[in-house]
Amino acid sequence: MSETDGQVTYEEFGAVGDGVADDLPAICRAHEHANATGRPVRSSSGATYHLGRQALTAVIATSTDWNTSRFTIDDRDVDDHRRSLFEVRSLLEPVALQIDRLSRDQASLDLRPDHDCYVQVEDDQKRLYIRRGLNQNDGVAQHDCFILRRDGRIDSPIDWEYTHISRVDAHPIDPEPLILRGGVFTTIANCMRQEVGYNYWRRNIEISRSNTEVIGLTHYVVGETDVGHPYSGFLSAAKCADITFRDCFVTPHKIYQTIGAAGSPVSMGSYDLHANNVVNFRLIGCRMNHLTDRSRWGIIGSNFCKSILLEDCALSRMDTHMGVSGGYTIRRCTLGWMGLNAIGRGPLLIEDSTLHGGTLVSFRHDYGSTWHGDVTIRNSHWIPNCGDRTWPYILGTRNDGVHDFGYPCHMPTHVTLDGLTIDDANHPPDYTGPYIFTDPDAGAATDRDTAFPYQPCTQITVRNFRSTSGLPLQICPNPRIQPALTGDI
Asked: Most CB atoms closer than 10 Å: which of 256, 265, 335, 355?
């Protein structure tokens, strides 16, 4: 198909598509022309495009159909491993907004931008997410992302109080969706050696344009050896709103070790999907193989997002690393050995799903195991520890109150278990039944009047619970966790 048919092709700009010649320069030129003329791009269905070693990035600003084309990414020898291969950007210019103060859950601003905008604000005088453990750090500057509508409404919750705002970034949201469709990408994995610290690779598709959907993309990873460093996500979205990955196939990465910030060995997280500071992030019908292969890292990480939906997915893990708010929903999904991780606030809903993690939900202890809101688990099936012998704890919580994470920490306020089945047949000999919570103090004799107290759960509701063992639920090994109970455990 030629440009005269309304679509730009890579071959018009010199791409060969034989899997050998470096086609990245031609691909960059094709997208540059498409962006300037407002035309979509379509690759050749039978081509294999080699993306080469050069430090080049193709900027995508129009819809692109990769259909059944193949793309080879050889990461064994590259000029710059931190450079993205594709960046999906908006052509709309950022706008200047003056915002001096914000309050948690503020619903509007006295501003009327010409477009709906994705906005990020920051207070560099406050530090949050001060991590504890082997990957300890001094946290990040307090910040929020949200959608500001043209009528001044704030469409997503403000999480923190702002009496001082050091930076405001605002980007118009394109009214029309940009669609990336199809494409079979194969990464030949890096063999990088570095004994201490992380050295993340990109060589990916980076999305910063709001209102973007990726449909039917496939990504394979081959050629992993005993040596390598992690990837930050082949499909990666950052600082934007309304992002959907639909019907995509992704590949988990091999786990490698390094020396962490505390001077001890740690496993390096390596991702095929990633989202940072995204409002309205959706994974629909995405899948992978080897959901319970413990040699492979969990497929996705996310940070600072607002409103996450997973629907009809089969993935080894879902993780809200440094928080989510505004709703976290897992519906008709299967999650593998790394399970479901969470910190944040708002409603957390799991329904009609099957999970295989060590706990049904792990509230990350390196960030305080905090969930300020309600948790509902409905009509779901949990196979603890992938069926290996274990004593099941539904909700993993650990916070002894001695570390300052930069914010108050909470157990879930109200937990509802409605139609939960636990396959606990493979249990230890002294087993007396599953617990709802792990011991937040991890067995230590901790005074409740600690410097940074962990607020306990206040209410539990149980309906239609079933365990394979036939044994009843227990609340928590720690006697100070005694929420009000409705129903029969």
From this structure: 335
